């Protein structure tokens, strides 16, 4: 049984990368392997923005990532630096900087690159989308 980490660097607006990532992860799980974590980095952090709305006519990754977390205990790690640079903030950052509303919440977890690299030691394969 293989253990995977998945690195999401493409934005939700960039073609069908999110859908392909989700289908890949579903295949890994149905094959009996595990996905330990998804790490959202660069423009991939836009997947975690709670203020984005589902338009109904395309794949909406945020709901899919949340289902993966709930159903298969996949950690959803968000690069804190990449997120803050793109205006995606937790309750803590919102309070510290006087922002009215946070747009990052559970099950997404802020993490640094160091934490992600530590997680990589527990997996067999890394796949990037």
Strand coverage percent: 15-25%
**Tally of contiguous helical segments:** 5
CATH architecture: 3-Layer(aba) Sandwich
CATH names the topology as Hypothetical Protein Ychn, Chain: A
- Percent helix, as a range, is 25-40%
Instruction: Kindly state the number of beta strands.
Output: 5
The main pleated sheet reads as:
5 strands, parallel
CATH homologous superfamily heading: DsrEFH-like
- Uncertain segments: none
Order of helices and strands: EHEHEHHEHE
What is the CA-CA span between the terminal residues? 22 Å
InterPro entries: DsrEFH-like, Sulphur_relay_DsrE/F-like, Sulphur_relay_TusD/DsrE
Organism: Alteromonas hispanica
GO molecular function: sulfur carrier activity; sulfurtransferase activity
Family: Belongs to the DsrE/TusD family.
